[in-house]
C-alpha cells in the first residue's frame, strides 16, 4: 500500500484565543513495501500524523491517501501497534491474535491456521495459552504485532511500539522486527524518538522538529540489513541525523555557574 | 507531655465515674406512656414527690425518662442509668434473671382488664381456640406476652400453634388496622384507643387468668444509698393512688396529655386499674406464677426468687397499707 | 529480625500473627470478668458466649436462623444483581440514559436501607417481601455504581483496536467492554453482597419470626446479652465466609487482573 501525506496542517485551540500549530504543511510519501520512520521529539506531531493515517484524526487542511483513496476511517488494512500493547487481558495469546479474524466471521479452520502461522512468526510458540499478564513486555508486543498481522494488513502503523521496553529488550525487538520485515516486506510507518532505533530500522527517516511540527528533512538509510550499530556507516548516518537537531543559535540561558 | 496525659486521665476518670452513677443529689425515674403510670405522674404534677422528699430532708434533682416498653427500660437499668422504674411484672423478672441488680419496692397497679388479646372488629375469631395458625403480634417479653400464652392455653393451644410476631405497640396498631396480623396481645392505652376507633374488639382479657400486676423497681444501689428517699417516693406514690381513686375525672384531666388520650377515654382506662403500692400476698402469688411461666417458656434461664426480689419490708417501713 | 527462610516455620509464624491478637483480647476479657470488673449483663464473658453458642448450635436453632437469613440475603442480593447489572450496563453505554437516571440514583443512594422500613411495611406488608426489599436496596447501589464505572473506564485503546479491526458495535460491547469491566463489576458484587448481609439485621426488624437478626432483637427484648453477642459474632463469621467465597470466585473469573498485595 502506498501512503501519501499532502500538505497536512493541523492546529489546536489553547485557551480562549490561542491556537497552537501542531503540524505545519507536512508532505511526504511512503512507498509500497517501504519502512519509514517518523522521528522527532515529543510534541512534534509524529503520533498525530500516524493517527491520521489510521483514520482516527483528520487534518485541518491537506489529505492522507492510501493507494490513492483518502483515509476516512480505521480499517484492518491499516493495522496499528501501540506503545502500551492494548492487549485484551482476559484473552489468551492465541485468543488475542484470533480476535480480529473471529469478529469478521472468518471460519474456524482458517483462524487456527493463521494463529499457528503468526505465533511461529513472532516467536511465541509454547505461549499460546498464556495470558498477557504472564508475559514480558517484549512478548506482549509480539502479540500486539501478530494480532494486527493476522488481518493481513497492507500497512503497519507502529506508534513507539518499543518505548515501554528496557534498552536490551528494545534492541532485541528491533532485530526481530527486521527479521520479520525482511521475510516479507510490508509497508510500515514507525514512530519513534530514538535516533538509533530509526537508523537501525528505516529505509528512510522523516526528521521532524517541534513547535511548530515541521518536516525538516528526509534522511535515506541505504544500508543493507541486518544492520550493525557499531558499523562506521551506521554511525555516520546517525551523526548526520543528530546534526539535524543541533541548535543553530545558542539559546539564551546556556551557561550557569 | 506529662501534663496533657494527666489532664486526659482526669477527664477519662471523671467520665467513667459519672456515667452510670447518679450524683448523690439526683433521682432518675423511668416511666412508660401508659395509664398505669398515672399515679406517679399525678404526684409529679402536684409536686408531692418533692414534698415527701423534703420531709426527709432531701432535695434531689428529679430526672424523668419515658420508655416505650419494659425491655428498653431494662437496658437502661442494666447500664446503670435509672434508679426507679415502672414496668410490667414480666419484663421486671426477665431483667432480674438477666442479672440486673434491682428489687421490687412496690406495686404500680394491677388490672386484669388493662391487658387483653384483641382482634379486628370484623374478625371471625370468636374464641381462643380459633387463634390456631393465625398471626398474632405482641411485644415479646412483656406481660401481655404472658397473657397471650394463658389465653392460648384456654383454647388448648401453645405458641407453637400460632405465628407469634414480635412487634412494638406502635407497629401493632398499624398492623392490626391494616389487616397484616390477625390478633395481638396489648396493654392500655392501646386497647381503649383502638376500640374507640371501632377497629378492634377484645377477645379475652386478664379477668380470671392474669391479674396484670405492674411493679415499681429500684436499683439496689440506689436503695442502699438512699433508703429514706426511696420510702419518700413510695409515700408520694400512694398519695397519687389515693387521688386517682377519689377524683378519677380530675386525675384523667391532669394526665391526659401524658398518655395522648382524651380525658373521657382515660377515665374509662383508669377505672380498670387498681393503684396500690403495698405489696400484698396475692401480688406475690401472681409474681410467682409469672416467674414460673417465664421459666417454662424459656424466657428466662435462671430462676428468680420472688421472695428475695420483692422487698416487702421497705413498703411496710414507708408506712403504707 | 531475620527473614524466616524455612517455609514451614514461616507458615506457623504467619498463623500465629493471625490469631494472637484475638486470643489476647479474649484472655483479658475473661480475666476481667473473673476479677469482677465487668458485669455479665453489660458484657458476658467469652466462656458464657461460647456456652450459649454451643447450646444454640446443638439445638439446631442456629442452623435454622442462619439458613433463613442467608436465604433472604441471597434473594435480595440476586434481584439486586440482575437489576444492578442490566441497568448499570445500559447506563454505562448510553450517555442519554445516564443523564436521565443520574439525579434519581444520586438522590436515593444516600438513603440508608433502614430508613425505608416504614414504607417497605406499607408497600409489602410484614412478610418476606418487605425484608427482601430492604436487603435488595442495600446491595443494589454498590452493584450499579461499580458496573457503570467499569463500563465507563473501558480503555480508550480498546476502542481504537476495535475500530481498526472493524468489530461490530454489539460484539464490541459483549466481547470487549463487558469483559473489560469485569474487575469493577466484581468489586460491586462483593461490596453488594457484604452490604446485603449487613442489612439483614435491619430487614429482620420488620416483624421477623426467624433469622439471625431476629435472634438478636429477640434476645434484646429478653435482656439476653450473651445471645446478642453470639448473634453478632455469627453475623461476622458468616460475612467473612461469604467474602472469602466471592474472592475465590473473583480469582477464577478475573485471575488476569494483577493486583497489589501488601508486603
Judging from the principal axes of the Cα atoms, what is the shape of chain A?
globular
Average pLDDT, all residues of chain C: 88
> Could you tell me the number of beta strands of chain A?
10
Q: What is the number of domains of chain C?
A: 2
Q: Name the largest protein-protein interface in this structure.
A: A-C, 25 and 22 residues
Task: Catalogue the unreliable spans of chain C.
Answer: none
The biggest sheet of chain A, with number of strands, parallel, antiparallel or mixed sense and barrel status, is: 6 strands, mixed
Give the CATH class of the largest domain in chain C: Mainly Alpha
| SSE-based structural type of chain A | alpha/beta
Strand content of chain C: under 5%
CATH superfamily of the largest domain in chain A: P-loop containing nucleotide triphosphate hydrolases
- What is the CATH T-level topology of the largest domain in chain C? MetI-like fold
What is the helix fraction of residues of chain A, given as a range?
25-40%
Task: Provide the gyration radius of chain C in Å.
Answer: 23 Å
Tell me the CATH superfamily of the largest domain in chain C: MetI-like
The major pleated sheet of chain C works out as: none
Write the layout of secondary structure elements.
The complex is a heterotrimer of chains A (257), B (321) and C (263).
Chain A: E1 3-14, E2 18-30, E3 35-39, H1 46-54, E4 61-66, E5 69-70, E6 78-81, H2 93-103, H3 108-121, H4 137-149, E7 155-159, H5 167-183, E8 187-192, H6 195-201, E9 204-209, E10 214-220, H7 232-244
Parallel strand pairs in A: 3-8, 3-9, 6-7, 7-8
Antiparallel strand pairs in A: 1-2, 1-4, 4-5, 9-10
Helix pairs in contact in A: 2-3, 2-4, 6-7
Chain B: H1 2-18, E1 26-31, H2 38-46, H3 48-55, E2 61-66, H4 70-78, E3 84-88, H5 89-97, E4 102-110, E5 115-120, E6 135-138, H6 143-154, E7 163-166, H7 169-177, E8 183-187, H8 190-196, E9 200-205, E10 213-219, H9 220-225, H10 227-246, H11 248-259, H12 263-271, H13 281-296, H14 306-309, H15 312-317
Parallel strand pairs in B: 1-2, 1-3, 6-7, 6-8
Antiparallel strand pairs in B: 3-10, 4-10, 5-8, 5-9
Chain C: H1 7-34, H2 46-58, H3 61-93, H4 95-108, H5 117-124, H6 128-152, H7 156-164, H8 169-203, H9 212-221, H10 225-253
Helix pairs in contact in C: 2-10, 3-4, 3-6, 3-8, 3-9, 5-6, 6-8, 8-9, 8-10, 9-10
